[in-house]
Amino acid sequence: MNKKRVLSGVQPTGELHIGNWLGAIRNWVELQKTHETFVCVVDLHAITVPHDPALLAKETLSTAALYIACGMDPKISSIFIQSQISAHSELCWILNCLTPLNWMERMIQFKEKSIKQGDNVSIGLLDYPVLMAADILLYDADLVPVGEDQKQHLELARDIAQQRINSRFGSEEQPILKVPSPLIIKEGAKVMSLIDGNKKMSKSEPNEGSRIALLDPPEVIAKKIKRAKTDSFIGLEFGNKERPETENLLSIYAILSGLGKEKAAKDCESMGWGTFKPLLTEVTIDALRPIQEKYVELIKDPTELNKILNDGRRSASEVAELTLEKVRRALGFFNAV
Ligand code: TRP
Description:
Blueprint lengths: L4 E6 L7 H14 L4 E6 L1 H4 L6 H17 L7 E5 L5 H10 L4 H5 L2 H10 L5 H15 L5 E3 L5 H19 L11 E3 L34 H10 L16 H14 L2 H8 L5 H28 L1 H30 L6
Parallel strand pairs: 1-2, 2-3, 4-5
Helix pairs in contact: 3-12, 4-7, 4-13, 7-8, 9-12, 10-11, 10-12
């Protein structure tokens, strides 16, 4: 019984979309069968940019419900809310004091996000990757399934664990923190925007037509797919660099239809957009229906959902507190007996 441990999380900002599902949550659902899995809603990360207090709790709960609706099983995985476990903030502070500022200033995502924030960049935004490192390191995670764009953050978590904690305060034989590995899953790992095949599908893109939210009703899905950007070639194919939108839509179709890439490409090789788009609409609506039904059921019954999240909180905090205690001891903090 020595299962490897997995930890991952998504921010509760905006609506989860098929990119979050196919690129992240769907992989967790597979991983939980063979790994000890912890997934959290990272609400502390959500306040690194200005946020609406009237929405935070609602979106946090909705994100957790969607994890479950997508197939995360609370009987075998721990599903919890980051801010409910104070060890995340506490370890983050300790790691802050050991992480060089110049490691943070080179984080690509910080540079991109801070440009968007103009004059109003919080220290929290700069510190975002350290909090993420705390999330991961608290659970002794072996594997962290993340998208390409999070690789640099994972590298940072590894460097902090290895160079700043283990090598300074631990020993070769008795490392304090486990050094995690990224798990970058290829197929479906990156779903692109419906209006620009070169951009990742994103919750923060102002144009809602760029993404299909998991809770979009059928008519909205139909409209978004109808308006999705295409090209003037006939027939669909993979691997043509000049056709990023085709690559993306065909890849979504291959996954959601369950046909797989090869069969999907064969079926669609001489199809025009007028035939393909209704087909894609149909498989998307069908694929999302069970998720939406399960979601409605969960949101209608907050008692059950609360129980799940309380259980998750309990099992996660047990592990997190142990790690935090280990770090506190290694760093020499006062310990009342
Ligand atoms: N930064 C991650 C993202 O945007 C979210 C995240 C926060 C995360 N903490 C994490 C992912 C810990 C994996 C593990 O996708």
